[in-house]
């Protein structure tokens, strides 16, 4: 059933849905610059680290990166099941690369390395995107830099893009992980949105849903921004709840009192 707020505000879809095609992601100059940096890194066969708080848009940056890299020149492998031990991690990588998983950790590692070298000969540069990398086991982390070390460390046949929560950067900067950290040439942190960004983001999302007018009053946006801490996922959730609340009360705009009610309800539900 179509949610009430969609008909009430005459939208043609749920505006804040996570089901948004790569090509239609919101890319303000700050995000564009981030994607440019990552594209630049993998173009030069370098590796990168991207960290940020939950919901600030890290995985969406990876999707924007995927959209920018020509398929003929890059082979992207996306792994997000980072909680695996070293052997299962390489097994997952084999499956993602269409290789038959071998029985031992050494054989798995060998299969992945051979494949990476073959891709290098085909001039397709392999890029491993490891999302949720703050969850990687230490024994997997200990091994990762070896994947970046080909022909006596003279060639970069593979780019790793490690993505995770800020504690990933803290972990990598520990002495134990310095071999890997020193090979992550591009290191970026996604900051939470500014109030101006939040306002642009809401407008962008609503325009995509065929909304041609300003539904959110500026002071309601400011309140929503603060409550969400500038994290896009929280903005999506609270903005949807605010649209819903405004529709229930047959209001033409989302004003401060609507957001206040949504936040009060949110706080109530958090107790359960
Ligand atoms: N560039 C963008 N364009 C449109 N929507 C976005 C964009 N970035 C983030 N979002 C919205 O915010 C939500 C959260 O973003 P994303 O999943 O990328 O966050 P994350 O930083 O990877 O979070 P986590 O640390 O929890 O994995 C997305 O599902 C999407 O709805
Ligand atoms: Mg993510």
Q: How would you describe the overall organization of this protein?
A:
This protein is an alpha/beta fold and 272 residues long. It has two domains: 24-189, 3-Layer(aba) Sandwich (Rossmann fold), CATH 3.40.50; 193-270, Orthogonal Bundle (Helicase, Ruva Protein, domain 3), CATH 1.10.8.60. The protein has helices spanning 4-8, 29-43, 58-68, 86-96, 105-121, 138-147, 167-172, 178-181, 195-208, 218-228, 232-248, 256-270, and strands at 47-51, 74-79, 125-130, 159-164, 184-189. The mean pLDDT is 91. It has twelve helices and five strands. Strand 3, helix 6 (138-147) and strand 4 (159-164) form a beta-alpha-beta unit. Helix 2 crosses helix 3, helix 4 packs parallel to helix 5 and helix 11 (232-248) crosses helix 12 (256-270). The site of magnesium ion has 3 residues, from helix 3.
In short:
With 272 residues, the chain is an alpha/beta fold. The protein is built from 12 helices and 5 strands.
Distance between the termini: 27 Å
- The CATH first-level class of the largest domain comes to Alpha Beta
Strand order in space, largest sheet: 2-3-4-1-5
User: Could you say which small molecules are bound to this protein?
Assistant: adenosine-5'-triphosphate, magnesium ion
The CATH architecture of the largest domain comes to 3-Layer(aba) Sandwich
CATH topology of the largest domain: Rossmann fold
How would you sum up the global shape?
elongated
CATH-level-4 superfamily name of the largest domain: P-loop containing nucleotide triphosphate hydrolases
Strand/helix succession: HHEHEHHEHEHHEHHHH
Residues in helix, %: 40-55%
Task: Let me know the largest β-sheet.
Answer: 5 strands, parallel
Provide the low-confidence segments as ranges: none
Q: Indicate the radius of gyration in whole angstroms.
A: 22 Å
Summed over residues and divided by their number, the pLDDT gives a mean of 91
């Amino acid at each position: 059933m179509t949610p009430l707020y969609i008909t009430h505000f005459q939208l043609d879809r749920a505006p804040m849905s996570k089901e948004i095609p790569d090509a239609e992601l919101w890319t303000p100059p700050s995000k564009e610059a981030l994607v440019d940096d990552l594209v630049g890194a993998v173009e030069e066969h370098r590796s990168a680290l991207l960290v940020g708080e939950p919901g600030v848009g890290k995985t969406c940056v990876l999707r924007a990166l995927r959209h920018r890299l020509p398929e003929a020149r890059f082979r992207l492998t996306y792994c997000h099941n980072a909680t695996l031990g070293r052997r299962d991690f390489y097994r997952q990588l084999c499956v993602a690369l269409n290789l038959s998983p071998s029985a031992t950790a050494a054989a798995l590692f060998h299969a992945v390395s051979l494949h990476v070298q073959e891709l290098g000969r085909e001039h397709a540069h392999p890029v491993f995107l490891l999302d949720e990398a703050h969850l990687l086991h230490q024994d997997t982390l200990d091994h990762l830099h070896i994947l970046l070390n080909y022909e006596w460390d003279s060639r970069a046949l593979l780019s790793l893009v490690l993505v995770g929560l800020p504690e990933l950067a803290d972990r990598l900067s520990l002495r134990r992980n310095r071999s890997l950290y020193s090979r992550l040439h591009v290191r970026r942190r996604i900051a939470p949105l500014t109030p101006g960004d939040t306002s642009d983001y809401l407008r962008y999302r609503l325009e995509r849903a065929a909304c041609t007018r300003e539904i959110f009053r500026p002071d309601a946006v400011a309140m929503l921004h603060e409550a969400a801490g500038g994290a896009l996922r929280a903005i999506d959730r609270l903005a949807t709840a605010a649209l819903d609340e405004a529709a229930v009360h047959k209001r033409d705009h989302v004003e401060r009192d609507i957001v206040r009610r949504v936040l009060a309800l949110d706080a109530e539900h958090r107790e359960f």
